[in-house]
Amino acid sequence: MLTTMVAIAAVIVLLLAVSAFFSGSETALTGANPARLHLLAKGGDKRAARAERLIAIKDRVVSSILIGNNLVNILASALATMLFSTLFGGFGVVVATVVMTVLVVVFAEVLPKTYALRVPEALALRVSGPLSLLTALFAPLTYTLGRIISFLLPEQTPDEDEGEEALRGAIALHATSGDAEDEAESQMLGSILDLEDVAVDEIMTHRSQIESLDLDQSNAALIDAVLQSTFTRLPVWRDQPDNIVGILHAKNLFRALRKAGGDPEQLDISAIVSTPWFVPGTASLLEQLQHFRSRREHFALVVDEYGGLEGVVTLEDILEEIVGDIDDEEDKVRRGIQREAGGSFIIDGEISLRDLNRNLGWGLPDDRASTLAGFVLYESRQIPEVGQVLSFQGFQFEILGRDRLRITRLRVTPESVLVQRRRTQRQTSEQTTP
Description:
Elements: H1 2-31, H2 34-42, H3 46-56, H4 58-88, H5 92-118, H6 120-137, H7 139-152, H8 162-174, H9 180-194, E1 205-206, E2 213-214, H10 219-228, E3 233-237, E4 244-249, H11 250-259, H12 269-272, E5 278-280, H13 285-295, E6 299-303, E7 309-314, H14 315-323, E8 337-339, E9 345-348, H15 353-360, H16 372-380, E10 389-392, E11 395-403, E12 406-414, H17 415-432
Parallel strand pairs: 2-3, 5-6
Antiparallel strand pairs: 1-7, 3-4, 6-7, 8-9, 9-12, 10-11, 11-12
Helix pairs in contact: 1-4, 1-5, 1-6, 2-3, 3-6, 4-5, 4-6, 4-7, 5-6, 8-9
């Protein structure tokens, strides 16, 4: 009799161990980082590749684990009831319920799952083999359960953006460490994901700000203009500035000038200009970046839907969307944002809303206009005069400068700053009032 009870107790302990294995395996498989497993699998780790395959059929694997876990738990509870009923008679059922509840919760659920949460990838690698066998063994049952569940709970259409949202969440979480480097990395990674959602015409240099050359002027004048410019690639035109006929590269110009013995009049500049490349302004930055790479180009002219010239976009413009402003020794360092002591900002009208939001942490909508001046024009539905003050989107905009119909400078004050100013003025007035 004693031998039988010892054997039953040993079987119960074994079943609890199997239950702990199932619980830990489920947590490890669902909590493992797929990206880390993928890297290990690419490195030749067969266990990682097997774990990846299990994650791909996670529903079937979890169903197999639940079937196995319930079987061993029910069997362990039945054996424990039989054992304690032999020892304590009718009161043994109560004792068995209490003891098994404690054992299952502590040793078969909480303990293995806590351990699995600490080392999910390592445990997922170790249990991938047994889980593969278990999934194959319970395949008929899991298939039947899957059909029943599909009937009771129709499948939903998968969200195409789910993976990107998960990646954005991981990037945002990375930025919460408080480390400045982590924040910079997260900002750059987020900007890469935004490339597909930003159009070329949102970051281009507008045609009003393009440096271009008249091909009909003298060679000496063209060379002087190239020397004075900070750019190495310049559009050239004939008859009118919008009629771009080519792109002049400074290196090609000076190479040709050297072959001509330094005599500008011996040059045929029209022969050394390259064919202009026109791209639509509606193309995304990701598409344009891929085109730059495939064509090995750094410079493109942007046109609208009617074929009219809108501006210029360069490879550097796209890279700056990822890493921020890039200035070299020839660039004019001009950010266009000046912070005032009272909390206001003096801002150039031509600064892009994306740069403004990124530098100051604002959330001005950029779906209707790409620059601050364009945003004010769109929101106000008028061409404001110098000195006029407008308020919308939680900001106050004071027009400081205008060049004909173009807004050049503004003073922008967040609503929170205005509220604080009014509160301070009210407190000061109350203190000075007798």
